[in-house]
């Protein structure tokens, strides 16, 4: 490591929603001449695989306060261990800043940075301030927000907050200059439910689409991500319809899939919402219902309020309800086109640059 070049630690882990914006920022900062060091946990390590392998990755211990008294004690021990590991790392690399992206894996490096007098910047991907960021926010120098109307900020925290948006991959941001696909022939619906697929999508969506009239089915192309153990059952349902379909357990060509799709049925995780709004694609959002603070409900609500999509809570996602929504949209495709414009207006394709500016303004 060249100590003549300023170094920035990026702390993220646990899920792709925390890591993907960190990865986008890493590439931007490297392009500006900064050295990057990644601090993550074992779960987050796999999401950084697309980064330049020359960027150092350090596994930092972290834990959650769950599972009864012993689980809380173990989680606390892991967090303390992670703080000491992070202090050692900070003393080794001497960063000018530590940037955290929420989640428990970001807490030890951020707290260690605050103890060591290093500038710390928090990035909140969701429309409500997460627990880890809420605990670290009082001592942070800046809080970068993905949504202008982020919930959970006191007046003091708002005073040091800046709206940057949520960084997305360059290949996704580039879609903002491509036109919404014409709807003069087939309408493509893509169904995605996270890295493993959402079971409820396999249970409900195929039956809802199969309940559409043959005329509407003839106009449809369905691209669906499904859990491996449900693919055969989903294919059997679609095989009895008159629509075109493709089912896979995973899609590694998402930029191309987004480009060709007219409507998404998906969860409303931070990265998903950021990418679809940046690309200008409307969606029916079904928030993951088991987040402690309903993060995905707030995310979907922001897009719905802007007119860029529709939210259906999982408890309300019945075959009949989804069929009715799809009928209304497919019979009046101009609604989709209008929502696509609203989604794009909600998106930020310059979020990576704005976040990088926020971090480097201290120099």
Write structural notes for this entry.
This protein has 363 residues and is an alpha/beta fold. It has two domains: 7-166 and 349-360, Glycogen Phosphorylase B (Rossmann fold), CATH 3.40.50; 173-346, Glycogen Phosphorylase B (Rossmann fold). 44% of the residues lie in helices and 16% in strands. The chain has 16 helices and 13 strands. It has helices at 16-31, 42-45, 68-93, 107-115, 131-136, 155-159, 170-173, 199-210, 214-218, 231-239, 254-260, 270-279, 295-306, 319-331, 334-346, 351-360; strands spanning 7-11, 35-40, 57-59, 97-100, 119-124, 142-145, 161-163, 187-192, 220-225, 244-248, 263-266, 283-285, 309-311. Helix 1 (16-31) packs across helix 16 (351-360) and helix 12 packs across helix 15 (334-346).
Q: Could you give the order of the helices and strands?
A: EHEHEHEHEHEHEHEHHEHEHEHEHEHHH
Domains (count) = 2
Percent range of helical residues: 40-55%
Largest sheet data: 7 strands, parallel
Instruction: Report the total helices.
Output: 16
CATH homologous superfamily of the largest domain?
Glycogen Phosphorylase B
Gross CATH architecture of the largest domain: 3-Layer(aba) Sandwich
The shape, in one word, is elongated
- Write down the Rg: 21 Å
Give the amount of beta strand, in percent: 15-25%
Distance between the termini: 20 Å
| DSSP strand count | 13
């Amino acid at each position: 490591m060249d100590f003549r070049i300023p170094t920035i630690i990026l702390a993220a882990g646990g899920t792709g929603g925390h890591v993907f914006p960190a990865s986008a920022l890493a590439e931007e900062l490297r392009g500006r001449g900064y050295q990057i060091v990644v601090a993550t946990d074992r779960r987050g390590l796999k999401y950084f695989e697309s980064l330049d392998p020359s960027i150092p990755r350090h596994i930092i211990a972290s834990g959650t306060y769950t599972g009864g008294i012993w689980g809380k004690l173990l989680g606390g021990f892991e967090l303390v261990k992670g703080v000491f590991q992070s202090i050692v790392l900070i003393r080794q690399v001497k960063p000018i800043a530590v940037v955290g992206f929420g989640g428990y894996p970001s807490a030890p490096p951020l707290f260690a940075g605050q103890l060591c007098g290093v500038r710390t910047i928090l990035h909140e991907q969701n429309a409500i301030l997460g627990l880890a960021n809420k605990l670290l926010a009082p001592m942070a120098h800046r809080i970068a927000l993905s949504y202008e109307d982020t919930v959970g900020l006191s007046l003091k925290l708002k005073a040091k907050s800046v709206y940057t948006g949520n960084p997305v991959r360059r290949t996704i941001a580039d879609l903002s200059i491509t036109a919404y696909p014409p709807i003069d022939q087939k309408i493509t619906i893509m169904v995605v439910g996270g890295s493993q697929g959402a079971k409820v999508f396999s249970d409900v969506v195929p039956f809802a689409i199969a309940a559409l009239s043959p005329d509407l089915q003839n106009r449809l192309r369905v691209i669906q991500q499904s859990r491996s153990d449900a693919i055969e059952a989903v294919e059997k349902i679609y095989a009895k319809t008159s629509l075109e379909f493709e089912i896979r357990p995973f899609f590694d060509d998402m930029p191309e899939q987004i480009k060709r799709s007219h409507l998404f049925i998906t969860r409303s995780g931070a990265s998903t919402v950021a990418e679809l709004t940046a690309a200008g694609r409307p969606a029916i959002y079904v928030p993951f219902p088991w987040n402690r603070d309903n993060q995905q409900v707030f995310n979907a609500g922001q897009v719905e309020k802007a007119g860029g999509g529709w939210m259906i809570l999982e408890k309300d996602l019945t075959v009949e309800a989804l069929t009715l929504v799809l009928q209304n949209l497919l019979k009046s495709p101009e609604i989709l086109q209008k929502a696509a414009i609203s989604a794009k207006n909600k998106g930020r394709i310059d979020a990576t640059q704005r976040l990088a500016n926020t971090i480097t303004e201290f120099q």
